[in-house]
Structure formats: structure tokens, C-alpha cells
Design brief:
alpha+beta, 9-stranded mixed beta sheet, 6-stranded mixed beta sheet, 22 helices, 31 strands, elongated
Length: 723
């Protein structure tokens, strides 16, 4: 009207006065006391107010201006009429006064509000559930294990807790989450109830948590995983949530079978009064279960305890399954104080990692990563950005026992374990040839013991949270931090012209690649061989919480006892009794510093000389006719060193091949090239024996070393690998 007036050359203020006079004239619209007295719910109350407002042809801004003292804010009235906030009594009375309906109408509307407040469950909003529920039917058929479905519901509770502004009290108290299986009269599971004592949500947040939508040019996964998890478990889902300050619970019911036949795709959102004002949290009840087979509770409890082991033991999560707390799976590793001596110096059995690769920004709307200097998301245009450091932190360590499968690195994202005992980083891929090489385990038996826990919250994961996006630059950065770029072994790196790998995994690999019994490799032994089976049994007792195996003392004493028995004087053939428990270990006579054989009070001396054999070679580059460069090993030699403080006299080394093949050709060897002799090897010296490997050379050998020292003869056995 103002634009029309200016176009006609008339003062707009004149038109404004005429327009206000026209719109303020009351019209004869039937909405009597009988209509008001029929209102019994907040939904009907909102509909009546909206109808009356439309009939009077008034905007909410104009209505707000009619109420003096600002008691009818336009935004507050709008949220109340849309069902986003609670419809207060003072808003209703201010609405009636602004319309000048009279005292009698005010009393009627006041009574209508009182009747609505007494209603236990009220439908007050209808939402559009996009996209089609038929998509949910398809998503529910996607294969997802039951434990992963339950973990997704636990993740949603942790995510809601993380969105709340962190207070000191919230940081001290763990989030309590319970998973209960309700059973029918026949003992079959009828419902699954997942409840958390978190901050809860309001109605709009609950809808956003389950709604599938598009953000930018891709599907938002905010409700993707939780929808699959819920409808994979059952066809009927009821969500019930509230914040502490809310007056009622927001309840949303989703029946997949009904939704697929509903052409409008609308579901009701209702309110339920609280029994106590301080109630809060979220409860998800799933019925119409797909599976009715018997459930293995111990296995499910162990799996969840493994997935959330970090959060549980850090007291950030208390997870209960059918009324019993889920214990965390603790890592059974050697203490960081345990070290082994290598050429590069002492190497700890536990390597700490904390590297920040870069810092970017993450969009809170769609989750995309954008540069640090960007003002808005490049995907969806949102300006809600937060800093996201690309930090890789955790540790790598040596497990106290070897196992064919129970080893590898655990990778976490936001406290949840994504990869469980992953072994992919033990493989090295040549980018030039595309060939892959398994580098670990490298010693017999082919079992592993390198483990670790790595946190990388910035790396994207799949919707099912069972794998990382390994084709992303973020994951490649994690791999470089953990294992470097080249092979783990020094010789292999030299052959391929790579520099020495100094990554944490390479350091552990070189120090603990062998499984020889004793303290040199931190492997329990019985004086003759490794006790791998016994160490595994102790590991089972550790995971069961046995108090005698909480620390690594049992394994360490067994390794020390092996060294004491192995270095016994030659000819002492008294049997060595392998310790069967911690109590036997503590009283075993063959511990370091106690060299008294069983049944004897005589103390026999330990050797001062320490003999070690090492295979060495040089690398020579050769250019082929086509111009390519190849490397070959030259100057191959077996170095015999005395790293102890004593002198080894009349040293004899016998070489026995291990596996198919023969031993290498050794210069200056006796007895058909299988025995080396050194008349005298003083402390801190070495002797090199040239060797040559042929096509028939076995990959490994067993070296039996005998020497005299102070009138006593000693023997030591060592394994070596040619290559």
C-alpha cells in the first residue's frame, strides 16, 4: 500500500492511517463461549487461537503492539503457536486482551487453558517425516550386527552429552547408559529399552536426531545410522526425552509398518507431564523385534566392553546390560619401565604417541572440513564452524603373550573403538610396483604381540562405524605417524633405498621382532624353550580380573628365571620346573641374583661374557642395461660380539639350519662349514666371519654357543635370520 501511494503521489502516512483503520474494524465472526468451552487440549487451544487470529486478519506483530507493557512478545507467541515452546497461561490471556474480547471471554479462555494443562498426553504437533518411510524399510534390511545397533544407540547418547556445554560437574560424573531386554511370559525378548541419564533434548532436537535430510550436496548422516540401528532391531520405536528445565517429556512414536502406508508421512509428537521436575534424559523403546533367538549375554557384554573400553576405564561412561555393569577390556601389555637393550640403546616396551598434523575447521551442520581461514562451509554454506585439530595420540606396546589373532592396533574415534586389533599397518605396500609385503610377525612361531590404542577423532568413518575412510588424506596422515613411509626392517629399507624408519611401530618392530625366551625379548621361558602356551593362559587370567596377574610381574619373573637356567654351567642337567603360578615364581630358586640349583646350597657363578651373533651386509647399487638401478647384498658376514664384561675362551659356535635348506657358506669354518671357533674373545670386541648365501640356504638358523670362563663352561642358544 505504501508503494502504491508513492506511485500515485500521495503521502504514505495518509494511506497508513486508512489501512490501520480498515484492519482494526471488528468483524462479526462466530467464536462464542460454547466453542471455547469445548477446548480440552493444548493442540485445540493453539488451533483456536490461530483461527481467531486469521479471522481478525491481524499479524502477530500488530497483535503484539496492541498489548501494553510488552507482555505479548511476537517471537514468543509465534513459537508457542507452532508448538516449539510451552503455551503459557499469561500468553493466552494477553492474546485475548489484545483482541478485546471482553471479561467473559477472558474467563472462558483461562478455564480452557486449565483443562488443557490437566491432559496427560496431548498431540500438539504434526511433523513431516522426510524422506519416504519406504526408504526406512529399505534401510532396515541393511545387514548390521545386533551389537553394532546397540552401540549406535549408545553413541547417540554420548553425542548428545558432547553437545552440551561441558561443566566441571559433567566432566567428573560419567554418563550412565543402560540397555535392558524386557521379556514376555514365554521368556522371549519383547522390547529393548536403551536409557541414558544425559542432558536430554527438546522436541526439535529429537526430530533432527532421527530425520533424514540433505545437507549441501550430500545426504546428512545425522539420523542415518540411528535409523538403521533402531529399525534393524524392531519395527516400532518410541523415543522419550526431556531436559531438566522442561515441564514435560517429548514423546515420538514411529511405527514402520504404519508409516509405509501413510501417504502424508506424518508422525505425531506429543507431551507427557513429568512425575518429578528434575527428571531428564532420553529413553528409546524398541518393540516388534526382528530376532527372537536366544541372546548370548556374556558375548554381547564382552563386545560392548571392548568397543567402549577407553570411555569406561576413563570413568566417562557407565554402561549396564540387563542390570549388570559392562567391564572394560584392559590391555595386557608390558609396563613402560620394561626395556630391552639394542644397538640404538634401550627401547621401552611402550611407545607414547602425540602428534598434531594440522588444525582445520569443521562445519557443525554437515560435518565437512574446511580450511582454517574460511568464513563459511564450502559444502552447505553454514557459518557454524569450530576448530578441529588433526591430532593422533595414544600408544603402541608389547603384549605379555603371543597369539595367532589376539594382537594388533585398536583405533578410536571420539572414544569408540572403530578398528579392533587391526593388522593392516603390519603390511607394507610398494607404491612403485603395487606389491604388498607382510612384515609382522617375522619370527617363529608366526604369532604377534604388538598392540596399541590410537585416537584419531578427525578421520571420517563409514556410517556403520566399523571402518575408517582409508582413501582419505586424514587416514594416510595417521599411517605416516604410526609406521612411517618405508619398510619397518632396516635391511629391507636399505635394499629399497629408504632411510632408516624411526616411526614408533618400526622401533618396536626392530626391538621385539624376535620371540626368543628371556629378558632380552621379554618372553617367558622354562630354561630350554619359550612358554607361549603358559603365557596365554596367564593372559586369560588377566582378562578375567585375577588379582595375581594384574601387573607384568609373573611374565617378568618367568623370563628372568629362564635366563638364570639358560646360563647354568655346562654339565648341570638338573631339571628346570616351569612355574605354574605367581606363587611358584616368587619362590623359584633360579631367579636373577639367586643361582643356587634346586636341592643344593652351593651358589654357582653366572657368566660375565655375553656373546651375540649378528648377520650384516653392505648394499651395492648396479645399473642395468635398461638404465634401472638394482641393489644387491655384498660383504655378507656373521659378526660374533662379546658385549659382556668377561672374556670368553675357546668359543665354539655350531650352526644348525632351521626349516628347509642348508646353512650358508662360512669362511674359516670347521666340521663341513658348520662350526666356528674363536680362541679368545675379550670384552667389547667382535670377530667377523665372511659368509655367502646360496639358493639352498635355509631362511633361519639355530646357533649353539659354548665357551669357557673362569674354569667353568657355559652354553647359550640363539636364533638368527639370514635376510
Amino acid at each position: 500500500m505504501e508503494k502504491f501511494a508513492r506511485g500515485c503521489g500521495v503521502d504514505p502516512r495518509t494511506v497508513q492511517e486508512l489501512w490501520q483503520e480498515a484492519t482494526s474494524r471488528p468483524e462479526d465472526i462466530p467464536f462464542g463461549l460454547d466453542d471455547v468451552e469445548g477446548i480440552t487440549s493444548f493442540e485445540q487451544l493453539r488451533e483456536a487461537m490461530a483461527k481467531l487470529l486469521r479471522a481478525r486478519r491481524l499479524s502477530q506483530r500488530e497483535l503484539s503492539q496492541r498489548e501494553p507493557f510488552g507482555r505479548l512478545p511476537r517471537s514468543t507467541l509465534n513459537d508457542a503457536l507452532l508448538g516449539k515452546t510451552r503455551l503459557r497461561k499469561d500468553l493466552v490471556l494477553g492474546f485475548v486482551r489484545a483482541l478485546q474480547l471482553g471479561v467473559e471471554q477472558e474467563d472462558a479462555w483461562s478455564a480452557a487453558w486449565e483443562r488443557a494443562s490437566l491432559t496427560k498426553s496431548v498431540r500438539h504437533q504434526v511433523i513431516d517425516f522426510m524422506p519416504s518411510p519406504h526408504l526406512l524399510q529399505v534401510l532396515s534390511d541393511i545387514d548390521m550386527p545386533e551389537w553394532n545397533c546397540l552401540a549406535e544407540l549408545v553413541d547417540s547418547a554420548l553425542g548428545r552429552q558432547g553437545t552440551v556445554s561441558g561443566s566441571a560437574a559433567a566432566a567428573r560424573s560419567p554418563l550412565e547408559v543402560s540397555i535392558d531386554f524386557r521379556r514376555d511370559a514365554e521368556g522371549h525378548d519383547s522390547e529393548i529399552v536403551v536409557r541414558d541419564q544425559g542432558a536430554g533434548m527438546d522436541g526439535s532436537q529429537m526430530l533432527d536426531s532421527v530425520r533424514l535430510s540433505w545437507a549441501g550436496n550430500r545426504l546428512s548422516v545425522a539420523g542415518f545410522g540411528i535409523n538403521i540401528a533402531m529399525f534393524r532391531l524392531g519395527s516400532v520405536v518410541t523415543m522419550r526425552t526431556a531436559r531438566r528445565e522442561a515441564a514435560a517429556w517429548s514423546v515420538l512414536s514411529l511405527d514402520l509398518r504404519s508409516l509405509t502406508h501413510n501417504p502424508s508421512w506424518e508422525v505425531p509428537l506429543r507431551l507427557e507431564p513429568k512425575e518429578r521436575k528434575d527428571e531428564h534424559g532420553t529413553e528409546i523403546t524398541i518393540s516388534g523385534l526382528r530376532s527372537r533367538r536366544p541372546r548370548r549375554m556374556p558375548g554381547l557384554r564382552d563386545r560392548l566392553g571392548d568397543i567402549y573400553s577407553y570411555l569406561i576405564r576413563e570413568n566417562r561412561l557407565r554402561l549396564a546390560l540387563d542390570g549388570r555393569l559392562v567391564p572394560p577390556r584392559m590391555p595386557c601389555v608390558w609396563d613402560a619401565a620394561r626395556t630391552v637393550e639394542r644397538r640404538e640403546g634401550p627401547v621401552s616396551a611402550r611407545q607414547t604417541i602425540d602428534v598434531t598434523l594440522a588444525t582445520v575447521q569443521q562445519c557443525r551442520a554437515c560435518g565437512a572440513s574446511v580450511p582454517l581461514d574460511a568464513d563459511a562451509c564450502l559444502e552447505c554454506g553454514s557459518r557454524h564452524l569450530m576448530p578441529l585439530p588433526h591430532r593422533v595420540w595414544g600408544w603402541l606396546g608389547i603384549q605379555r603373550y603371543l597369539h595367532p589373532t589376539d594382537y594388533g592396533i585398536d583405533f578410536y574415534r571420539h572414544g569408540r573403538k572403530i578398528l579392533v586389533r587391526d593388522k593392516s599397518l603390519f603390511m607394507w605396500s610398494d607404491e612403485d610396483t603395487g606389491s604388498a609385503l607382510s612384515e609382522y610377525p617375522a619370527d617363529l612361531p608366526h604369532q604377534g604381540r604388538i598392540v596399541g590404542e590410537i585416537h584419531c577423532d578427525h578421520v571420517p568413518v563409514t556410517w556403520s562405524k566399523d571402518a575408517f575412510a582409508t582413501d582419505s588424506s586424514a587416514w594416510r596422515g595417521v599411517v605416516r605417524v604410526i609406521r612411517g613411509q618405508g619398510p619397518l626392517g632396516t635391511h629391507h629399507s636399505q635394499q629399497l633405498a629408504y632411510p632408516k624408519n624411526t616411526s614408533p611401530l618400526a622401533v618396536l618392530f626392530r626391538a621385539f621382532r624376535r620371540n626368543d625366551p628371556g629378558l632380552r625379548c621379554l618372553v617367558p621361558g622354562d630354561g630350554r624353550r619359550s612358554m607361549h602356551k603358559r603365557a596365554q593362559e596367564w593372559g586369560k587370567l588377566f582378562h578375567r580380573g585375577h588379582p595375581d596377574f594384574r601387573n607384568d610381574q609373573s611374565w617378568n619373573e618367568a623370563a628372568a628365571a629362564h635366563d638364570a637356567q639358560r646360563l647354568r654351567p655346562a654339565g648341570n642337567d638338573r631339571a628346570f620346573v616351569a612355574p605354574g603360578s605367581l606363587a611358584q615364581l616368587k619362590h623359584h630358586p633360579m631367579l636373577p641374583g639367586r643361582h643356587t640349583p634346586m636341592g643344593s646350597s652351593r651358589t654357582e657363578p653366572a657368566p660375565q661374557a655375553v656373546v651375540r651373533c649378528t648377520y650384516l651386509f653392505d648394499r651395492e647399487a648396479r645399473t642395468n642395461r635398461d638404465g634401472s638401478v638394482n641393489y644387491r647384498a655384498t660383504g655378507q658376514r656373521l659378526r660374533v660380539s662379546n658385549i659382556g664384561s668377561g672374556t670368553a675362551d675357546r668359543l665354539r659356535i655350531r650352526i644348525e639350519p632351521v626349516g628347509d635348506g642348508t646353512g650358508p657358506l662360512v669362511m674359516h669354518a670347521r666340521d663341513d662349514g658348520t662350526e666356528l671357533t674363536v680362541d679368545r674373545l675379550v670384552s667389547r670386541t667382535h670377530v667377523d666371519f665372511p659368509i655367502a648365501r646360496t639358493w639352498g640356504t635355509a631362511p633361519e638358523a639355530r646357533l649353539i654357543m659354548n665357551w669357557d670362563e673362569g674354569g667353568q663352561e657355559f652354553e647359550e642358544i640363539q636364533s638368527i635370520r639370514w635376510g
